[in-house]
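Anyone? Bumping this.
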Amino acid sequence: MSFEAIVFYSLAALVLLSAVGVVTHRNTVHSSLLLGLSLAGVAGIFASLGADFLFAGQVLIYVSGIAVLIMFVVMLLGRASDLHLRQVNNQWLAALLICCISAVGLWRIASSFRGLPSPGPAKPSTALLGRLMMGDYAVPFELISLVLLAALLGAIFFSHTEKDA
Amino acid sequence: MPILTLITFLPIAGALVILCLPKEAEKPIQITALVSAGLSFVLSLCVLYGFDRAQPLMQFMENADWIPSMHVHYALGVDGLSLPLVLLTTFVTVLALISSLGIKERIKEYFFWFLVLEAGMIGVFEALDLVLFYVFWEMTLVPMYFLIGIWGGPKKEFAAIKFFLYTLAGSVFMLLAILAVYFNSTPNTFDMLALMHQHVNWSARFQILVFLGFYFGFAIKIPAFPFHTWLPLAHVEAPTAVSVILAAVLLKMGVYGLMRISYGMLPLGFAWFIKPLIIIATINIVYGALCAMAQTDMKKMVAYSSVNHMGYCLLGIAGLTATGFQGAVMQMITHGIITGSLFLLVGVIYDRAHTRDISAFGGLAVRVPTYAGLMFLACFASLGLPGLAGFISEFFCFLGAFQAWKVYAAVSVLGVLATAAFFLRMMEKVFLGPFNNKWAGLTDMNARELASIVPLTVMTVALGVYPKWALDIMKETLIYMINTPR
Amino acid sequence: MVEHAYLIPLLPFLVSLVILFFFDEDAHSPYAPYLGIATMFWCLVQSLVIFHQASSGAVHPWPYEGSWEWFSFAADSAGKGFSAAMPIGILIDGAAAVMLVVVTLVSLLVQVYSLGYMHGDPRFKRYYAYLSFFTASMLGLVVSNNLLVTFACWELVGVSSYLLIGFWFEKPAPAYASKKAFMTTKLGDCGLYVALLLIWAKFGSFKISMLAVSAATPGVLTPLAATAIGLGILCGAAGKSAQWPLFIWLPDAMEGPTPVSALIHAATMVAAGIYLVAKTYFIYAASPVAMEAVAWIGLITALLAATMALVAYDIKRVLAFSTVSQLGFMLCALGCGGYTAGLFHLTTHAFFKALLFLGAGSVIHSVHTNDMRQMGGLSKKMPVTFGTMFVATLAIAGIWPFAGYFSKDMILERVYGHNQVMFGLLTFAALLTAFYMFRMIFLTFVGDDRDHERHHHAHESPWVMLWPLCLLAFLSVVSGAALAHNGFFEHLVNYKLPEGLMTETLAPRLMPYAVTALVCGSIALSWFFYGRNDFTLAESLKARCSPIFSVLENRYGFDAIFLSLVAFSDRIAKFAFWFDSSVIDQFFVDGWGLITRICAELSGLFDNLFVDRTVDGFGGLSMDAGVLLRSLVTHGQVQEYLMYIAVAVSLFTILILSR
Amino acid sequence: MTLAHYLTLSGLLFLIGIFGALTRRNIIGILMSIELVFNAANINLAAFNHFRHPGGVAGQAVALFFITIAAAEVVVGLALVLAIYRNTDTVYVEEFSLLKG
């Protein structure tokens, strides 16, 4: 088992186990912490795939941005009584079944790519990515920024409380 | 100047003006109607003036594309066959409008429909394109429906719907026939003049089928036995002026179509049908007269006499002779004039007495001598008294038919006898004998009624004494129709 | 003068219009009659001039014909149309010249007479308008050179007869009688109509002169066609001239004013039938069958009418029957080839029959009844009337030297030459004539007054009525002898029969004397029965032979036959109308409509029950399904929706996997 | 390591995320599960980019856009959660039935 494999398997285990924790843990705070862990694992996967800028973005936005934001909100809304409540609804069995069925399908898809070997070690791609963003993808890039701006405004709008009312 | 278009569409223009006038403006509405119909009449007199009587073919032709993709043209023209009928239409319509001045309710709609009706009738006689013909043909239907259905008698709705459905059924077959003709002509055309030369390409079987299609439409309009039963009902229920138009003009559309389209385009089909036609003519004459004999309602009697008189037209046509054709066309004109005045006269008495029952009267000749005199004249004209219009046309019909069908013509003479019988009986019961004091308050005819009837009476006498100027209009065309190689 | 003969019918026609439209309806306005009389006088003068010219042979060419185009129309010849001219014009031959004089003269006299007779009638002016109109039509009939125009005038004559019979239309009887007269003659006219059609089909012309030429050309007119045409014309003539079996209208026509009866139903119009047969004699010449039919119709009529006259009590009816009978004589003569004889009798008969009617009118005017049983002994009260009527009676009975003697003699001679059985029967009819005419004279003028009241008030008529009587009496005396003198009349009418028809079996020289003797015997018999103021013999005869009398009084049931014919046609008409309204209209047309409607209802029902329900059912189904599905999804639970999506995806997965 | 491994990983992560989204009662839990699904997708993008187009970066670029959009989504989603919580005083989705027809 090569080093590469070891890294992959351990990262995968981290990602999957913590993801299972996210969806099953009774305590939402713990769930959100595990989410951060899982996302960090994904960032590792990115790194192993040679996507260095993606790795950085994942860490910066997901792990340190989104996960923390979620944690804050969980804490903001959390109550002590939540810990004693069931966090999983009554359709879990059906969901499990569906997941199993889908898993088979996904497995078939994945296995069809089995024969493809790794093209060799990945090279840093940040420079390329930057050129692409400022070149061919400039317009989507700008649009994305607009989307972000809209999301920002929307968030403010929704969370805004009218003090006067 | 497109004079035929003017003649046809002046009434429409008048109708549109009427549409714009307020409902209460009764006088202007009536004047507009009279003026537009009158102008139309004057223009048709101009056409008569400019008409070349020695020329058998179409004159005053107008032609314009209408629906180029289907080769439909807006084509008008008159010849010796149609000009008399156009004249009759415009003339009788003016008089009918004069007599309609007595209409009291819903004046605006009445005159509007009346003018639309006139335009349709004129158009039918002028159209030289089958689609145009059909459009005008149908254009007469709707106004008639409303005129009967709104201003009619007690059973007006039934009469109107029966008239409408019956004639519509006929025209549906006609439309089929028109389409059949169109698709079987090379090049595809609706042009009636061009279609006259197409029959050489058509098989007898096809011609017979198409003939039957057309005939069904025409026979209902004529009305030929056994499709005549809408007529008495429609006549009885229709208001006076509408009855006049119905009898004087509308029925002629059928005969005109038979002569123009069936005879002109489908010689083999026509030849095949000639035997049934003469039988139908005989039945129409004798049977119509017999039915009229059994009537107690004056208007119904006159209506059945129309059936009888249109039988003469068919008789004349069935002879396939120039004389017979002459008689048929002349009969159309004289019947229009005579029966028009008869209906007007019956309307006069109905307006006063509110009954048309023959046996309800008696001895009226003492009380209303002018009326009686005009009625006598009209009745005698209708029963074919020489010196009055009916005789010469009737005689020509017989003369024409007799050359080909001796027995049928001879049997039809019995119809003349029966016609005399019922008219004389009516005159005896209504005007002669002891005066029925119930009608002591009856007044003689007023100026409006005289104005609408006297012109017809004058024409009755004039055509009877000197038929030359009517015969001359149509003569050459009819001779040409007979002599055209077929 | 003869070239302006068209004026003769035209003037009275215009005058009738003028009178009708421009004169006041004033009972005492004298202008209308004077205008009519003046016109008629002019016409008479012109006719006399023409007659004189014709008889002196001053007219060239003879017969004179003037023709103008009336109209032209589309005609056919061998399937090809062409423009044919219809002429209108005058044809003056001997017969026409004679008839012109007769018609204008009688008309003039009748109009003068009417001044007195119709005095005070509320429709005085209209009466004169009608009279003028009638005369114009009759004259047109006489002079026309075109059979179509002749027919037209023929019909117009019928109409004026209709108007005049029904002149007092307030009474039901005249109204009915006028209709009956018109219808009966119209029945005969149908035959004439067909004959005209046949003539056109055969000859292609209506011009009489041309027809005569064509008919003489061999091969143009087949005997069959000639027979058909001849019978058709005979049919018309029988109607107009009141011949068997269409004679029923004439007795009823006596409901009209008596001068009208004199003019129309004695002297002129009823003679039109005879005149027409004479005018178209060339056709009969080509058909022995038609000729024979004419003779027999005439004979039967003469006999039947004479017997019917025997029992009539209405003075005008007696005269009417006698007219019918005399017309039968004329027709019989024509049928036997006696062209001249027929027309000669027509002429003389016109004079004395008009006289008889006018005299009867005078009597009626005086006693205000038609019934001879209420008269009697009027000869003293009304000497002039009696005298003139007696002359006329002698004339009609055929006593020398009165007019009737010559004409009747000529007829009998001709018939004797043709067929001796006919001769016998006709002579019998002549004897009957003498009998009933004298019966009338005796009952009216001779003997005691049976109704004192009426007799007391009776008076001689004014002179305006009497001098026409005198003039006619004069003519009744002299016209026969004058016209017969040296074959004048024969020379004038001058018709040459084809060779085959000239039967030259000359009657025995004694025949006229024998007939006269028999007639005298008949008169004596009449006096025996009715002239002696003692009617027991007549009554007992009547009682003994009552069945015969009632048959005669019922006119042999011909009226009944015609009434039943009318009733029958009425029944047919009713049936036709029933058939029309019930069978054709209600059963077929409305039935068809009903079937359509039932079909519509059915399809509507089908639509409602089936198609619509099906559609509704689908709608309902989807709605139910929707409700069902909504029950699945209406919790508003996002996760449920998500679940469905997931289920769907997994199902797709299964689908993909199962491939 | 082949592409199949990475795809398997992302598939499992996806399924876990789906399972969470289907079963978590807490609305924030659902949000977190959706984040997991996003990440699974991103892994796929990166993996395909790496294995199929070794020199290219288009897949990474798209993944980057996803991350951005996911961030926006989370921001808005959380704002909504806050708003809902303020109105209904609960974070349990069974108790929201605004979509109920």
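Late reply, but here is one note on the structure posted above: The longest helix of chain C spans residues 558-633.
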